[in-house]
Amino acid sequence: MPISMKGPAIFLAQFLRDTPPYNCIETLAAWAANLGYKGVQIPTWDPRVFDLDRASESQAYCDAYRELLEKHGLTVTELNTSLQGQVLAMHPVYAGLFQPFYPEGLSGSAVTEWATDRLRKTIAASRNLGTKTIPTLSGGFAWHLNYPWPQRPPGLVEEAFEELAKRWRPLLDAAHDAGISFAYELHPGSDLFDGATYEMFLEKVDQHPAACLNYDPSHLVLQQLDYLEFIRLYGDRIAGFHVKDAEFRPNGRVGVYGGYQPWAKRAGRFRSLGDGQVDFRRVFTLLTEAGYLGWAVLEWECCIKSPEQGAREGAPFIARHIIEATEVAFDDFAGGATDVTRNRRILGLE
């Protein structure tokens, strides 16, 4: 059977509503399967679709969860911990903005302890479900310092990354012991937002094998980073893939920073698959060449098109782009067995 990445799959977070079929895993599974998806990525923070506490403790719960999805021809691709990862390392100035990500009444170290507990439980739940990757955000302390004005005191950024590594290192160790990787999505608002910051983090955690990447080209387009060269540089670290489109159309009024405008009026905007500027033919080709065999997961965040249309169009779009990697060379028919004497004669050496 030809080797390829798996998919199409869909991340359920952006589709959750308080009305059917978007309010429980049973009806969402049927909805996703009817659209042509083969896998679902689960947000671990929403009890409408997942009980993280039970999943971390009960193999029976995880077995039943898998069986429910299998009835619809689906599988769990990954458990996503973006919200818990974001608040694991959080500058106090953002506590109010991120408060919906963690329980009310917590502050300071209590938030860090809560996030650590949820991430550890996700490792256990992933092991029970048989998944190998946990997409997440790194959180961070230095995002407000990304523009070098005012001048940064020497050692300030280094101290931020020391603390970030201190909080993540025990979790990376636990994940590695369980045969699982964290896949950091490089995301503005976190201290890991591009290749340089990812390399800084890897240095602080001694190139930890569980510190991998969730590749999402949309965030790289919005900061005008070469998202194709990125795969060539870090392909061996890519353990997850959010298939998400974006466009960047600067003008005389707004550019990369967006002017505090709403999404629809920014120069950089997330779009539904095929409506933006990401060259997905090259993305899928480069990921295939890099040996990526994980899931291709739709993440929908379009500022124009409805989620229903985005989801309908997403499955066939991903399916068209998945490449069955060749196991033979196209010119094998013209080859022959190795013959050293013949090769030397062709080279004029005999």
General description of the model:
With 350 residues, this protein is α/β, with parallel strands linked by helices. It has one domain (6-346): Divalent-metal-dependent TIM barrel enzymes (TIM Barrel), CATH 3.20.20. It has twelve helices and ten strands. It has helices at 25-34, 52-57, 59-70, 82-88, 109-129, 156-177, 195-204, 217-222, 227-234, 280-289, 307-321, 340-346, and strands at residues 6-11, 39-43, 75-80, 133-136, 181-184, 211-215, 238-243, 245-248, 268-271, 295-298. Strands 3-2-1-10-7-6-5-4 form an eight-stranded parallel β-sheet. A two-stranded antiparallel sheet has the order 8-9. Helix 7 (195-204) links the parallel strand 5 and strand 6 (211-215). The protein is globular and about 80 Å long.
Concise overview:
About 40% of the residues lie in helices and about 15% in strands.
Name the helix and strand elements from N-terminus to C-terminus, one letter apiece.
Answer: EHEHHEHHEHEHEHHEEEHEHH
Within CATH, the superfamily carries the name: Divalent-metal-dependent TIM barrel enzymes
Q: How much beta, percentage-wise?
A: 5-15%
CA-based gyration radius: 22 Å
CATH class bucket: Alpha Beta
In the CATH scheme, what's the topology name?
Answer: TIM Barrel
Low-confidence stretches: none
Helix content class:
25-40%
Calculate the mean pLDDT score and round it.
96
Q: Give the overall shape, derived from the CA principal axes.
A: globular
- Please describe the biggest sheet, giving its number of strands, its sense, and whether it closes into a barrel: 8 strands, parallel
User: Strands of the biggest beta sheet: in what spatial order?
Assistant: 3-2-1-10-7-6-5-4
What distance separates the N and C termini? 43 Å
Would you report the number of β strands? 10
